[in-house]
Design goal:
Strands 5-2-6-1-10-7 form a six-stranded mixed β-sheet, with helices on both faces. Helix content is 32%, strand content 17%. It is of the alpha/beta class and 283 residues long. Keywords: Metal-binding, Oxidoreductase, Zinc. Pfam families: LigB.
Length: 283
């Protein structure tokens, strides 16, 4: 199935509605330099075809920042973190130094400790953006002129825990903040199949991806929170949960009555789904 754009989301955001919530799926740092990837083309067309309304700031929940307690980065300017090896040299020359969003980070902390009831939320005053944040953002917003705050996940917790985190962050919708969960619809690096052409998923991955899509589009968020018990091939699709938890935060921020829509789908290496979703709250 080819990639799709969500016209309804664009119209809503142009009207300055409260529905600035997304889950984007990515897997490879090479997205930043490989023009053959369909997902790269989708992200590059973002401001033109998907979301023309420029957000005031961005809160991005990245699967690649996994901490014991929720943590936000509160920095004046984001550095570009490279903690991967063996990629082409141009990868290490890329920079995405968007302004920090200190005020937003402190607001996130206040919401999580207030409405979220969390006893501890940390601030990191040195950490920049990992590739779960800067790879998609440099394609979506290449000017790097929008303040960005990053929030960590806790892989020791559950989907419901992250959904509750998102619910606490719901007030951010009304302040021009774009909330992005950045993870992956499927994430099992041990099952990558380099012999399969891009766009050809293996059956177990496709089954999980379709279950996730149908659950979201039908508003069965409770099932998604309990994905380990409800989904087919759950442990095959996600041996570890951190790449799915950004989705739960986005779902929670959108609200129980939010409408989900798939805004992109494509495949890489047989098992990597780039299925991405928007969440539109009822007005």
């Amino acid at each position: 199935e080819s990639s799709r754009t969500h016209t309804g989301l664009r119209e809503i955001l142009d009207g300055e509605s409260e529905s600035n919530i997304l889950f984007i799926a990515w897997i490879s740092q090479v997205e930043s330099i490989d023009d053959t990837l369909e997902a790269r083309q989708f992200f590059k067309s973002w401001s033109e075809k998907v979301l023309q309304h420029k957000p005031k700031s961005i809160l991005i929940i990245s699967a690649h920042w996994d901490t014991e307690f929720p943590t936000v980065n509160t920095v004046l300017r984001n550095s570009t973190i490279y903690y991967f090896n063996g990629f082409p040299d141009p990868m290490y020359e890329l920079k995405y130094e968007a302004p920090g969003a200190i005020e937003l980070g402190k607001k996130v902390k206040d919401l999580l400790m207030g409405a979220g009831g969390m006893k501890r939320v940390d601030e990191d005053t040195e950490r920049g953006l990992d590739h779960g944040a800067w790879v998609p953002l440099m394609l979506m917003y290449p000017d790097a002129d929008i303040p960005v705050c990053q929030l960590s996940v806790q892989s020791s917790q559950t989907g419901t825990y992250h959904y509750s985190m998102g619910k606490a962050l719901a007030p951010l919708k009304e302040g021009g903040v774009l909330i992005i969960g950045s993870g992956s619809a499927t994430h099992n690096l041990k099952k990558l199949d380099f012999s399969i052409p891009n766009g050809s998923p293996v059956p177990w991955a496709l089954e999980f991806d379709h279950w996730l899509r149908d659950s979201l589009l039908q508003g069965r968020y409770g099932d998604v929170n309990e994905w380990e018990e409800k989904a087919p091939n759950a442990k095959m699709a996600h041996p570890w949960p951190e790449h799915l938890y950004p989705l739960h935060v986005a779902m929670g921020a959108a609200g129980d009555d939010a409408k989900a829509e798939q805004i992109h789908t494509s495949w890489q290496l047989g098992t990597v789904s780039y299925s991405s979703y928007s969440f539109t709250s009822s007005l």
